[in-house]
């Protein structure tokens, strides 16, 4: 009995701090309920289309049915749902708010003395719940599930990935640089292999070899036909030989790694990986930075699209719910398209990843404020 009274007291305190009223609970329940209903509906359609697209791959490579269900689709569903979380949020807001406007519920709320600004409060509480849920999912829960999904795709769907880069130059540690003319992923061999060591900006040692092959049993590179030139204060020292084991802080996985590997990392792992790639001077570091900033910008867009959705659909119009849904879909898809468009500029080096990811939010925030001012009060 005391436990029940304690829970009621805690709930009462939380309710008092949030200052939620009956109408607030009504809107939050409608918002969250419609959001998850939209996810279930659209994800179900996406699974059907994805299955029809990949049916030939499944028939050809014959993965176990349990792997298809649990290793692919059980991990594909949360990934897809979170990927378009902002779209689902917008559809949910447009749908149930238009219905409220059509049933003159919004007019009744405003006529009772509740301001339009106060009516937005439960919407933003719901948006905060969805944004927090999306951020936790994309940063800490979905990455381990993505690892299972990507392993399945690499095994049964995607073609094997082979590195085709030439003149590879990487900084593997501060002051230590590795160069290779090309790398053969089949034999795990680096040709025209060299290691340079700098101290205080001055070259102190350089190893050069015809080629180096990866020894998987000892996790080392074995340089063949090598010579080492050490730069000493009083001259140079040269060593040579036919075979030498080296530890270079780089493995064959670094050459066959797809950019989608960042989808398997939580936020802490992603930050460490980006720092490592920046140290090595990787060409694809912008893609990884886009992934990092997107994990924050996408959940934040929930608030912007919620404000746009309410401002658009709170007015009762002659076209009814259909007109609101059509306008809402047009705006939400334009937001997603604009986000993809700006990230292409970041990959091309015309914009920094941070600006490219956040610019759509900034632009649509101004649109949201403009629509809010024109909304019926």
The count of DSSP E runs of length 2 or more, i.e. the number of strands, is: 6
Shape: elongated
H and E order:
HHHHHHEEEEEEHHHH
Number of domains: 2
Give the structural class: alpha+beta
Count of helical segments?
A: 10
| Low-confidence region ranges | none
Task: Classify the beta-strand content into a percent band.
Answer: 15-25%
How are the strands ordered across the major sheet? 1-2-3-4-5-6
Largest sheet, described in full? 6 strands, antiparallel
Between the first and last Cα atoms, what is the distance in angstroms? 46 Å
Helix-residue proportion:
55-70%
Alpha-carbon Rg, integer: 28 Å
Mean model confidence by pLDDT: 85
Overview in brief:
The protein starts with a helix and ends with a helix. The radius of gyration is 28 Å and the shape is elongated. The model has no long low-confidence stretch (mean pLDDT 85).
Structure, described:
The structure is a single chain. This protein is an alpha+beta fold and 377 residues long. The protein folds into two domains: 241 residues, no CATH class; 89 residues, SH3 type barrels (Roll). The protein is built from ten helices and six strands. It has a six-stranded antiparallel sheet with strand order 1-2-3-4-5-6. α2 packs across α4. The model has no long low-confidence stretch (mean pLDDT 85).
């Amino acid at each position: 009995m005391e436990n029940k009274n304690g829970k009621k007291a805690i709930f009462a305190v939380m309710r008092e701090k949030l200052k939620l009223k009956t109408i607030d609970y009504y809107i939050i329940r409608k918002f969250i309920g419609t959001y998850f209903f939209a996810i279930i509906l659209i994800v179900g359609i996406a699974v059907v289309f994805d299955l029809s697209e990949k049916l030939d791959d499944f028939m050809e490579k014959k993965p176990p049915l349990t792997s298809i269900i649990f290793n692919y689709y059980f991990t594909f569903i949360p990934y897809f749902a979170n990927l378009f979380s902002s779209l689902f949020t917008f559809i949910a807001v447009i749908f149930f708010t238009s219905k409220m406007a059509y049933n003159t519920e919004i007019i009744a709320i405003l006529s009772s003395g509740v301001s339009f600004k106060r009516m937005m409060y439960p919407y933003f509480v719901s948006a905060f719940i969805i944004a927090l849920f999306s951020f936790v999912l994309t940063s800490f829960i979905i990455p381990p599930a993505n690892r299972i999904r990507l392993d399945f795709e690499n095994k049964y769907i995607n073609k094997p990935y082979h590195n085709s880069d030439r003149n590879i130059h990487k900084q593997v540690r501060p002051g230590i640089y590795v160069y290779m003319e090309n790398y053969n992923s089949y034999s795990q061999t680096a040709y025209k292999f060299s290691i340079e060591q700098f101290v205080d900006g001055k070259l102190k040692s350089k190893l050069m070899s015809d080629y180096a092959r990866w020894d998987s049993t000892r996790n080392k590179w074995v340089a063949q036909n090598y010579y080492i030139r050490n730069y000493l204060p009083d001259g140079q020292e040269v060593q040579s030989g036919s075979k030498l084991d080296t530890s270079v802080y780089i493995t064959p996985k670094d050459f066959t790694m797809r950019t989608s590997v960042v989808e398997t990392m939580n936020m802490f792992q992603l930050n460490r990986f980006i720092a490592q790639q920046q140290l090595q001077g990787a060409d694809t570091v912008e893609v990884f930075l886009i992934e990092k900033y997107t994990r924050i910008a996408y959940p934040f867009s929930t608030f912007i699209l919620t404000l746009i959705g309410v401002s658009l659909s709170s007015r009762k119009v002659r076209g009814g719910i259909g007109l609101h849904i059509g306008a809402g879909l047009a705006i939400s898809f334009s937001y997603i398209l604009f986000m993809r468009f700006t990230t292409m500029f970041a990959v091309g080096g015309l914009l920094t990843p941070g600006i490219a990811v956040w610019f759509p939010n900034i632009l649509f925030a101004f649109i949201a404020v403009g629509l809010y001012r024109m909304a019926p009060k």
